Every structure is written in C-alpha cells, then in structure tokens.
C-alpha cells in the first residue's frame, strides 16, 4: 500500500521535471538568503560582543551560514539532475545517485528546521550572557587606563545612548558601582574620604549616573548627580520624575533587539524549510515515477510515483532489518572460525 | 569647420557602439542612483527642517529627482538605439528619431549641468540657513513649554549626539545664551539672583553646556558645569582638555555631511558626452553611402558660431510659422525638410 501514490503521464513527468528545475534554482536563491541571514546575525552579535560574557551563541549564525552554503550546493545539483530527468536515457546516468541524494536532502532539510528552532530557543542563554556581560562592563567602566578595558567606557556610553537604556536592570545599578576612576578623585578632600570609608570595599559610591543615561525627552536639563536627593535640585521630585533618565535597563533593551531579529530570521528560515520540503517531495515523486518507467520498459507510458512504496510501518520495519543485518555481519556468533563444528 | 572632429573606421564604430551601449546602461543605473539620492536628500532636509531658517532649498532635491527619472528614461532609449546602431540597416529605423533624440539629450545634459551647479550654489544658502536655524534653535532650547518650540531641545540634543558636535561654531556658544529654563531656577537663592543681575538682558548665563555635548571618547566622566574653572575639578586643565566635550561646531558638521552627499552627484556628466560621437558619426555613414569606409564624428558639424546662427534661423522660421500657420504643421515640415536633406545627401 504505497503512501501518496500519484499517476503520471509522460507529459506530466516532463512538466514536473521542468517545474522542479525551476524550483531548485529558486532554492539556490533561498540558500543564498539563508547564508546572508546567518552572516547578518553574526555581524550583529559581534558588534556587541563586549557586553556579552560568552560567545557561544555564535553557533546559531554559524549553523545558518553552513546550512545556506550546503543548500546552494545541494539545490544546484538537484537542478542539474531534474533538468536531465526529462529524458529517460539521461536518467539512467543519475539513477544510482538519486536515492542517496534524496536521503541527504532529507537530512539537510532536517538541519534547516533545527536552525529555525534554535533561533527561537536561544533567548535564555542570551539573557544570561547579557546579564554577566553588562555587569562586567559597568564594573570596568572606570578603567580607561587599563589595556584591554580602555574602550569599555565608550562602548557602554554609546550603547546607552543608542538603545536609550541605563544600567543593567535600571539606573540604580550605577549606584552600586564605582564608575569614577580614582585618578579623578581628590583624595585630600574629606568628602571623598568619607565616601570611600562608608562601605566595606572602599569604593566611591554615589547616587549619580553617567551622562549617557540622560534622556533626550526630558523638558529640563539633565540631573545626573544626586539623583535621589530632592532638595538638591529646584522643583524636582525623584519619585515622580520619569523623563529625566532612561528608565529601561540595557539588558532588556538588548534582549528585545536581538529577540526581534532572531524571530524574523526564524520565520524566514521556517518558510525556507517548507519550500525545501516541497522541492524534496517533488524530486521523490520524479524519482519513483522515472524508476517505474524503466521497470515497465516503455518510456511513453503512464507510471506511478509515490513517497513511500509501502506503508510507513512496513518501511520502518524493513529499514530496521537492514540496519540489524548490517550489524549482524560483524557478530562473533556467525564467525565460522570460532567454535568450529567438528 | 567641424568642432572636435575624430576619424572612425568601421571596426572602431562597432566598438564604439558596444561601449556606448554599456555606457547607456551605466547611465540608467546612475540615473536611478541620482533619483534615490534626490529622495534621500529630500528626506534628510525634512528631518532637520526645524534647524533651518525659512529658506527655499527644496528645489535642489526636487530637481535631482526629476533629472534622475529623465536620465533613466532617456538613457534606456539611448541604450536601445545604440544596440541597434551597430547594424546599418537597423539604424535606418531610428534615423527619423535620431535628431529629436540628440536635441533632447543635449537639453538634458544641459539640465544635469545646471543641476550640478545648483548643488554647488546651494552650499552657501545651506550654510546661511543652518547658521540662522542653529542659533535660533539654541536660543529656544529652554522653551520646552512653548507650543511650536517644545521639540527644539530634543532635536538639538539628538543632533549634537548624532553628529558629534556642540553649539553653532563651538561649545562656547552655549555660554552666551540661557539654556536652562527659569522654571527650574530657584530665584530665592542669592547665587541665582546675582547671576541674573550680572548681565544687561537678565539672562542666567554660565559656563556650562547641555549633556549632549559630552564626548563619549573621554576617559573621564563628563565635565559639563564650570568648564572654564580648572580648580573646580580635580586633575583638570581647561586649556589642554580636548576630549571632554565635542570640539566641532554643529554648523560645520552638518555642512560637511550635506557636501558629502552633493559630491556623490557630480559623476553623470562625463557619461553623456560620449553618446554624441556615435550619433554624428553614423549620420555621416549614411551621407557617404559606403558602410565600410572611415567616417568622421564630431560634437558640432560647424563651428559654434555657425551652428548657433543656423539654429537661430530655424527658431526664427518656427516663430514665423506660429504667426502665419499652425505650429504643428510647421514642425512636421521642418522634420520632413531635414529628412529630405539627409536622403538627398545619401543619393
């Protein structure tokens, strides 16, 4: 009982081959799209690598890049095969390659699906990476004289201005970090010394934020020092003031940014996967139809095409037997040189 | 006496036709680029309209858009003509259209030249518009409660952040205006009252700048208050400090940006001149009758003076027709005359 049996006349077979040739070339284009999407994602992640603690999420764009390249090659070959399949004589040349080709394409299509699903599942790992990365970036914000960290201040400032965010979860994160370097603190002043002594680690903590936290939407000039002190500024109430600094945390802002990119990429990859599946089904039908033509001997007659020759259960069972027999070849019990029958 | 005469053999003519076909397609692409640059410039000017005083500079992007579209159309037709021109028999099909097409191309090239000159001429107008616009924007920076001016603070801040600039010509411009609204000044404090009284107009002036002037490349946290006072901050020397604030003025930054756009537009002129040679040389092929011989190509058949005189006569005659007969009949007769001349020359 074949699965998905369809009867093809000669004219229909030729039309199918032509259609598949066209679809394979479109698939080469979608392979290029896949490749460029992977490249784009890699560039985007690399742009902010300083605020991400680990680079492991790079496996997603790498997967997309390799899948894109493989898609181009496979579909290029597929296009060539389908072009020649219209002619029964030329089909003989490809007969032996066609079944392995279909199996490879099936596994490749599975990889595309995995790539699409990875885009959606990466969110938690990204959040963790951003949390740690931002925390370190804020901690080393003041170290503009340390090689390897001297650009962190600039990176964090540009990030906060571009994404309109402040701190890790909010602007209060800056109150727990010393973001002014000791080089610019007057140690002879008693104010400074008191502050340094006021906490266990000897850090200069204050309720102030860097200038990059200032919101451009505020109607008044930015208040970045003594943010929690209402009496330090005229006509200012810290509890009700919403427009002075950016309220969003940078972790949330970056997460939203990357999630939206990956969601769009994931959607496009899913559509590409569906398209590849369609092409694969078409090639399978063409292969079985051409093989049946050869079996019947008459190149002009009608032939059947199917997805699976027998039902799903029977095919699974026969494949399982093949794998078992492959395994049996190497079992010791059948070896005649051991335990010879005397 | 022909202007810029060049000799062409048959092979050279074929090569020229092919090269010109490619050039025509490049012109179509450059026409598309011109069109998109015009749209881009229009969008960019509209984005910053708040910072430009009332000056009519919209005509430049509009001109560019129109020229870009025309370039695409004309060069597309020209490409088709050049493709057919390699074959002398096919050229006969285009013969009647050739002269009007050449005239159109000439006027179009002239328009492109005018457009390029306008771009350069616009620079001084743009500079004036920006100077006036920026100084007004800075003056009204504090008026976030006045309708019509409430977004100037935001525009100015975003401009200074995006273009990495401060003030009109430099950060000192902020010292001469009151950029903190009186709503946020505690007029009961003696300090504030003193400052307000210290100048004629009663403005609260100080040596401080808005946060958007802060340079993100600075190794130390931004100093935006008491900038000129070296003793107010530890380890700070006002004269030698370069990285604290943006040193460039916003007028210069914006001008550089717009000039960069304009310079990308000047390339189209050279491509269009080459088409003239092919057209004139092929006409001469027909005049001499032998498709394999050498022929001359030129920019103008006679000297400038003679061509101008003959064209003036044509226009005068056309003018006479408008008075005596219908203009359409006249133009048709003119075209017929030209064709008859060419056919006579061929025979």
Automatic annotation (TrEMBL), chain A:
Superkingdom classification of source: Eukaryota
Localization per record: Membrane
Transmembrane portions of the chain: 20-45, 57-78, 98-120, 265-286
Cellular component, GO annotation: plasma membrane
Membrane topology: Multi-pass membrane protein
Keywords of the record: Membrane, Transmembrane, Transmembrane helix
Record GO biological process: visual perception
InterPro entries listed in its UniProt record: Peripherin/rom-1 (IPR000830), Peripherin_LEL (IPR042026), Tetraspanin/Peripherin (IPR018499), Tetraspanin_EC2_sf (IPR008952)
Family per similarity comment: Belongs to the PRPH2/ROM1 family.
Name this protein carries in UniProt: Peripherin 2-like b
Organism of provenance: Myripristis murdjan (pinecone soldierfish)
Lineage, broadest ranks: Eukaryota, Metazoa, Chordata, Craniata, Vertebrata
Automatic annotation (TrEMBL), chain B:
GO terms (BP aspect): visual perception
Subcellular localization, as worded in the UniProt entry: Membrane
Membrane topology: Multi-pass membrane protein
Main location: membrane
Domain of life: Eukaryota
Keyword annotations of the record: Membrane, Transmembrane, Transmembrane helix
GO cellular component: plasma membrane
Membrane-spanning parts: 21-43, 63-86, 98-118
Family under the similarity heading: Belongs to the PRPH2/ROM1 family.
Protein name listed in UniProt: Peripherin 2-like a
């Amino acid at each position: 009982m074949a699965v998905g049996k369809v009867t093809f006349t000669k004219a229909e077979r030729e039309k199918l081959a032509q259609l598949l040739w066209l679809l394979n070339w479109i698939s080469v284009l979608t392979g290029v799209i896949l490749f460029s999407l992977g490249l784009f994602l890699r560039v985007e992640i690399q742009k902010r690598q300083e605020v991400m603690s680990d680079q492991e999420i790079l496996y997603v764009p790498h997967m997309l890049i390799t899948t894109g390249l493989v898609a181009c090659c496979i579909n290029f070959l597929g296009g060539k095969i389908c072009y020649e399949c219209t002619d029964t004589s030329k089909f003989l040349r490809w007969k032996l390659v066609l079944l392995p080709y279909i199996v490879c394409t099936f596994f490749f299509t599975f990889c595309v699906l995995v790539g699409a699903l990875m885009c959606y599942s990466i969110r938690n790992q990204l959040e963790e990476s951003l949390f740690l990365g931002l925390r370190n970036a804020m901690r080393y914000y003041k170290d503009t004289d340390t090689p390897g960290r001297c650009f962190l201040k600039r990176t964090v400032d540009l990030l906060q201005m571009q994404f309109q965010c402040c701190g890790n979860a909010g602007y209060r994160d800056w109150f727990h970090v010393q973001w002014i370097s000791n080089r610019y603190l007057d140690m002879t002043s008693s104010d400074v010394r008191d502050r340094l002594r006021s906490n266990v680690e000897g850090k200069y903590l204050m309720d102030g934020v860097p200038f990059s936290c200032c919101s451009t939407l505020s109607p008044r000039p930015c208040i970045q020092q003594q943010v929690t002190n209402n009496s330090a500024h005229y006509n200012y109430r810290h509890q009700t003031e919403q427009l002075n600094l950016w309220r969003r945390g940078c972790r949330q802002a970056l997460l939203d940014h990357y999630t939206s990119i990956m969601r769009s990429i994931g959607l496009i990859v899913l559509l590409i996967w569906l398209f590849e599946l369609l092409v694969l089904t078409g090639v399978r039908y063409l292969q079985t139809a051409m093989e049946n033509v050869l079996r019947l001997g008459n190149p002009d007659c009608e032939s059947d095409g199917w997805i699976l020759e027998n039902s799903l259960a029977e095919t699974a069972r026969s494949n399982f037997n093949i794998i078992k027999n492959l395994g049996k070849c190497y079992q010791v019990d059948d070896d005649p040189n051991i335990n010879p029958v005397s | 006496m022909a202007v810029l005469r060049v000799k062409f053999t048959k092979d050279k003519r074929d090569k020229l036709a092919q090269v010109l076909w490619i050039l025509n397609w490049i012109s179509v692409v450059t026409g598309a680029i011109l069109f998109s640059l015009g749209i881009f410039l229009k969008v960019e000017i509209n984005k910053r309209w708040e910072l430009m005083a009332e000056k009519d500079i919209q005509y430049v992007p509009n001109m560019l858009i129109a020229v870009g579209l025309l370039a695409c159309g004309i060069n597309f037709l020209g490409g088709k003509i050049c493709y057919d021109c390699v074959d002398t028999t096919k050229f006969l099909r285009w013969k009647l259209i050739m002269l009007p097409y050449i005239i159109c191309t000439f006027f179009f090239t002239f328009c492109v030249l005018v457009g390029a000159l306008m771009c350069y001429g616009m620079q001084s107008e743009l500079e004036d518009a920006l100077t006036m616009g920026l100084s007004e924007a800075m003056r009204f920076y504090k008026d976030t409660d006045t309708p019509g001016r409430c977004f100037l603070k935001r525009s100015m801040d975003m401009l200074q952040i995006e273009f990495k600039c401060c003030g009109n010509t430099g950060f000192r411009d902020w010292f001469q205006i009151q950029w903190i609204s009186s709503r946020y000044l505690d007029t009961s404090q003696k300090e504030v009252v003193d400052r307000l009284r210290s100048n004629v107009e009663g403005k609260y002036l100080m040596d401080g700048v808005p946060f958007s002037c802060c340079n993100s490349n600075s190794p130390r946290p931004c100093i935006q208050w008491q900038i000129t006072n070296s003793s107010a901050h530890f380890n700070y020397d006002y004269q030698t400090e370069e990285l604290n604030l943006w040193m460039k003025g916003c007028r210069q930054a914006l001008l550089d940006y717009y000039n960069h756009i304009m310079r990308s537009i000047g390339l189209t002129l050279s491509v269009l001149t080459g088409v003239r040679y092919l057209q004139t040389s092929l006409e001469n092929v027909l005049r001499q009758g032998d498709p394999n011989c050498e022929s001359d190509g030129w920019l103008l058949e006679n000297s400038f003076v003679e061509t101008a005189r003959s064209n003036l006569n044509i226009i005068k005659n056309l003018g006479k027709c408008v008075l005596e007969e219908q203009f359409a009949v006249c133009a048709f007769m003119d075209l017929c005359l030209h064709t008859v001349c060419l056919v006579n020359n061929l025979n």
